[in-house]
Write a structure and sequence with these properties.
With 332 residues, the protein is α/β, with parallel strands linked by helices. The chain is built from 12 helices and 9 strands.
Length: 332
């Protein structure tokens, strides 16, 4: 598939054929299995100033929280008891969570449960990530959000794209399964930007690739901007599936924030992962990267049952496997 073909599909040349081909490609590699990654959003504290994100340090209206070790372990245990093959520990860029504490949490979760542990902790040092890898962490998510270096710098308040990319590449060298992704429909972007994102992400040879539509948060500088398109996000995920057949590609929560049932639809268009929140009720409402992130029916209670029902209603099968990418030697 050349760049002309990709751009043609991005602009809606033949959605039926694109989505059918993407679904067939995921069936060839993963069958009907959908991997469930249970997310524990243990802290919404963040020292970053990203213009699109509700967790940004400048958001004074957000009620901040940081879960204690016992509460984190309880949430992870509940996820494992309900059959999740992966526990995702996610937070803002919260330096108040020490390297040692995170290491103890990883070791304890791995000791108690037969699960993979994924980290989504932001721009921590590679020395910290090396320590957490030694403690047993399996995967790391490090999203780029955009591959346009100038837009990246503007949206992330002067931060360096090259530094983020260097950290991503360093994680791979440490032995992590590595995931990244982008936000589609960011203000001022075009299908040509989506094309560049697809090619760039494919060249990174990632184990996991995520695409979510832009959802404006009223407590950010982009509050009044037009939301992104769930359909464009579907097209991008489908094209990424065809170009990266062995990558794990999640149906992101932002799809449901724009349209109820958006994630279920994405599971029939090439996606093979669902990532429901297991953050305790009373806290999850404050993990508002964008409105509706944890407010839909799928994430309404700390249980994986709604996720399983969504998967089954799509004609697919919830999988308890750890779900490592087949491109790796340790398929789980």
């Amino acid at each position: 598939m050349n760049t002309h073909d990709i751009l043609s599909f991005l602009t809606g040349a033949d959605d039926d054929a694109l989505f059918a081909d993407a679904h067939e490609a995921r069936l060839k590699v993963f069958g009907k299995a959908v991997y469930i990654r249970a997310i524990v959003e243990f802290s919404n504290v963040c020292n970053k100033h990203c213009r699109y994100c509700g967790l940004r340090a400048d958001n004074r209206r957000l009620r901040r929280y940081r879960m204690g070790a016992r509460q984190i372990l309880e949430a992870a245990s509940l996820a494992a008891a309900e059959g999740a093959g992966t526990v995702v520990l996610q937070s803002g860029d919260d330096l108040g969570c020490s390297m040692e504490l995170m290491g103890e949490l990883i070791r304890e979760i791995k000791a108690r449960h037969d699960v993979a542990v994924t980290l989504s902790l932001g721009d921590r040092g590679l020395d910290e990530y090396a320590f957490w890898r030694e403690c047993g962490a399996d995967r790391c998510l490090m999203k780029l959000e955009t591959t346009d270096r100038r837009l990246y710098k503007r949206l992330r308040q002067g931060e360096d794209f090259s530094a983020r990319l260097h950290r991503l590449e360093g994680l791979r060298r440490l032995g992590y399964e590595v995931g990244s992704g982008v936000i589609t429909g960011l203000p001022g972007t075009t299908p040509a930007d989506a094309l560049r994102d697809i090619v760039f992400l494919s060249d990174l040879d990632l184990d996991m690739i995520a695409v979510g539509p832009f959802v404006p948060n009223p407590d950010t500088p982009l509050a009044g901007c037009v939301p992104g398109s769930g359909l464009l996000a579907n097209r991008m995920s489908a094209l990424l599936r065809l170009l990266n057949p062995t990558a794990n590609i999640p149906a992101t929560s932002a799809l449901d924030a724009l349209r109820p049932g958006g994630r279920a639809l994405a599971l029939t268009r090439g996606c093979n992962v669902l990532m429901p929140s297991m953050t305790p009720v009373g806290l999850r409402e404050d993990y508002v990267i964008y409105p509706g992130k944890n407010a839909d029916p799928l994430d309404g209670i700390p249980s994986l049952a709604p996720a399983r029902r969504t998967i089954e209603a799509s004609g697919l099968i919830p999988s308890p496997a750890k779900g490592f990418s087949p491109r790796r030697s340790h398929v789980g």
